[in-house]
From TrEMBL:
Compartments it resides in: Membrane
Transmembrane portions of the chain: 17-41, 53-73, 85-108, 143-167, 173-191, 228-248, 260-282, 294-312, 381-399
Protein's name according to its UniProt entry: MFS transporter
Boundaries of every Major facilitator superfamily (MFS) profile domain copy: 16-405
Organism: Pseudolabrys taiwanensis
Family: Belongs to the major facilitator superfamily. TCR/Tet family.
Gene3D superfamilies: MFS general substrate transporter like domains
Mode of membrane association: Multi-pass membrane protein
Gene Ontology CC annotation, any one: membrane
């Protein structure tokens, strides 16, 4: 049995937030460094008209592996501690980047993303660590702060990756690997363990290796079902946008890679504003339940505005659309993270956060398939449908709120 209560006097506190924040920044920066060059690396091995297909498959393979691994890594972090699992995840990512950068054949690129996906427990472990070390009332604020830190990484990474990719398409991969190794070293020397043991761990249950079983087990907690459903709607809709936005902007506004990179830079800026500033102000006043519904509503409006670019193909309207969409995104995520963390029993934080990461990976695996079906009907259809999915998630939260009054 483990003791991960925030009342544990040995649990690390304030200083660890800085360590976690630096870890998250380096991790997100490393991940986003490679985004601008993936199509060029894939293009070495497939005809030009097949690049989009294989990029989508590589993204889906990573998400599938992350879906399979996340609950297992979460259970391992409950059993053996957050720190060793975080180190394993970071080293796995570094190895995956190196394999992808070495290339030589298309299957090697897939292997690199498979290795990275199977060790993709970084974010869920970080969130479980915060839940271990902070009282429920503090978690939303910390998650908002970490969201802003991730926004800095998302803002910096693609731009730097674009510049490095101009020198060599493989350079961002090796720089990302170096950054991730640096991050692992930082965790090793600076991050204390948050799981304190008062008894030897119980016997390992092999059913914990089944991601669907883990997810179903977590959903036995009745107060987690609707939040998980709403989060799935949010990430499914977001994956539709992320997988299709560059193609959409190229077709509607004739954007090139540089313009798309600066658009992603704007997304990072808004993440910082919404998660780092607005959430800190609004969460104590409105509460996490209200903020999740408000975030999804604003998110749906942002989807509708992006879809309307076909009628108003202007950069100013794109900027307004990205502002609204990212505002909703930034309000929803830290508030929902607080709801899920507070609903989980103290000794199940790793499993719950792992299951949450698994359902996000499932959404990110299925979401990119929707634009492939919808875009031939209408280029803007994925964004109208994305807005509708966000509204479904908001409605589920609203009905739950009414039922529990």
């Amino acid at each position: 049995m483990v003791d991960i209560s925030v009342e544990n006097p040995d649990a690390p506190r304030r200083g660890s937030v800085a360590v976690i924040a630096v870890t998250l920044f380096l991790n997100v920066t490393g991940f986003t460094l490679i985004l601008p060059v993936i199509p060029f690396l894939v293009g070495r091995y497939v005809p030009p008209d097949r690049v989009g297909l294989y990029v989508g498959l590589i993204v889906s393979v990573f998400a599938l592996c992350a879906f399979a691994a996340a609950p297992v890594l979460g259970a391992l972090s409950d059993r053996f501690g957050r720190r060793p699992v975080l180190l394993l995840s970071l080293i796995g990512s570094a190895i995956g980047y190196v394999i992808f950068g070495m290339g030589g054949a298309l299957w090697v690129l897939f292997l690199g993303r498979i290795v990275d996906g199977l060790t993709a427990g970084n974010i869920s472990t970080i969130f479980a660590y915060i839940a271990d070390t902070h009282a429920p009332a503090e978690r939303g604020r910390i998650y908002g702060l970490l969201g802003a830190v991730a926004g800095f990484g998302f803002m910096f990474g693609p731009v730097a990756g674009g510049f490095l990719g101009a020198l060599s398409p493989t350079m961002p991969l090796f720089v990302a690997a170096a950054i991730t190794v640096l991050c692992a070293f930082w965790v090793y020397i600076a991050l204390p363990e948050s799981v304190a043991r008062d008894k030897p761990p119980g016997p390992w249950q092999w059913r914990q290796l089944n991601p669907l079983g883990q997810l179903a087990g977590v959903l036995r907690y009745a107060n987690l079902r609707v939040p998980f459903f709403a989060a799935f709607c949010f990430f499914f809709a977001g994956a539709m946008l992320q997988s299709n936005l560059s193609v959409y902007l190229k077709d509607v506004l004739q954007f090139g890679t540089t313009s798309i990179g600066w658009t992603l830079f704007g997304v990072g800026v808004m993440d910082i504003v919404s998660q780092g500033l607005l959430t800190r102000v609004l969460l104590p006043r409105l509460g996490s339940r209200m903020l999740t519904r408000l975030g999804l509503a604003i998110n749906a409006v942002g989807f509708a505005m992006i879809a309307s670019l076909v009628f108003v193909p202007r950069i100013e309207f794109l900027a307004a659309s990205i502002f609204v969409f990212t505002l909703g995104d930034g309000l929803f995520q830290p508030a929902m993270s607080e709801i899920i963390a507070n609903a989980a029993p103290p000794d199940a934080q790793g499993r719950v956060q792992g299951a949450n990461q698994a359902q996000q990976s499932l959404a990110r695996m299925l979401g990119p398939l929707a634009p492939a079906i919808l875009s031939p009907m209408s280029i803007s259809a994925p964004y109208w449908v994305g807005g509708a999915v966000a509204i479904v998630g908001m409605a589920a939260l609203w009905i739950r709120q009414k039922a529990t009054r």
